[in-house]
Amino acid sequence: MRKLVVKNRNYTFYFWNLFLCLFCILETTAQEVLTLENAIKIALENNFEIKIASNNLTIDKTNVAIGNAGMLPRINATLADANSVQNSTQIRQDGTINTLDNARNNTLTYGVGLDWTVFDGFRMFARLDQLKELQKLGEANLKRVIIQRISAVNAVYYDLVQQQQQLAALDTTIAISTQRLTLAQNRFNIGKASKLEVLNAQVDLNTDRVTLLRQKETYTNQKIILNQILAREASIDFKVVDKVSVDDKLILNELISLADKQNPQLQAEIINKRVSELELKQVKGNRYPVLNVNTGYNFLDNQSSLGFTSQFIAQGLTYGFRASLNVFDGFAQNRNEKIAKIRVENAKIAIEEQSQLLHSELNIAFQTYLTNIDLIQLEEKNEAIAKQNLNITVDKFRIGTITTIEFRTAQLNFINAKVRSSNAQFQAKLSEIALKELAGNMSF
């Protein structure tokens, strides 16, 4: 009778395992499989920081115009209508007195005028070049934001891959713990094991289930974080591709060379130096004279109820020029030039500082990268050894030649080795991402 009960329990156990497998397959089919390429594409289209940086670049591009630099003339159309009603008295030289109540006086003026600064000490040309440099600065800032967002997407994505691998590892250990509990229960039913062995197996299984629940919580939270970076609904469910491929062929000298050419922060400092130099050029331009030309065509119609002339009408062309030169301004010109030169010097120092910082970060990140590459190989070997040890332990446990403590130790060693191996791949990938971000070489 006891053997029949055991068989029924075994059939029930296998039935539930089959049901859970089918359920997991159906759930996996319903989930979106989000590739890294698609995640990056969504981030580039939706991310708020990228949108803001892109709009700022559009503003910088719009500002690059010869009119904004002061090279074009200003044309204004004017219209003025002045009216008055007054009680007026006129006393002439011969003593004649003219008096008129409610005397009207109407003056209508309209026309078009042009004012053009044709020379301002070359400042307008320096301003145009400065606007172009500011556009380049906007491009560098947009590239910086894009690289940072892509780096963040990569980091969170591969963290999810790691979490997903750990979930699979925990599923494996739960299956092993369940098998252990079944074996312990069968041995207890036939009188070959104590109740204590069954209880220990049940406790360990429950512990593994708690660990799995915590891991599922971490995994779900990481998916919410990735959805946030992608600027989409936090509730969107998906799976990631369960693979981490690390580029183990990176060379430090090549990375430094790339960083010197295309790191966005370093490029921004170089552009800032150029902007400061153009600002100095504009300040020096104040030493030159400024020449303006003006012309216009105006109409005048004046009507008066009292006086020698009842109506005066005029129209015609006006033109002229104006030249000015700063002779003395309380030494403000000298002060402004001195300040502008100091800003250029500060920009040079900022470039040197950023370059030194960049090289230091690259060297540190590269050493971490090399260590993590070595750890991948070591942890993979450890995982293979732990798996082999677990298989032997399971076989011995089936025939009852090993204790439950030894079985649990082998089981934990295997799951820990698998987690460490997954984490080593993840850390190596993070190192690769950090190096490529510093080099300004993130693919997108």
UniProtKB/TrEMBL annotation:
InterPro entries associated with the record: OMP_efflux, TolC-like
Subcellular location per the Swiss-Prot or TrEMBL entry: Cell outer membrane
Gene3D superfamilies per record: Outer membrane efflux proteins (OEP)
Key words, A-Z: Cell outer membrane, Membrane, Transmembrane, Transmembrane beta strand, Transport
Family: Belongs to the outer membrane factor (OMF) (TC 1.B.17) family.
Descriptive protein name: TolC family protein
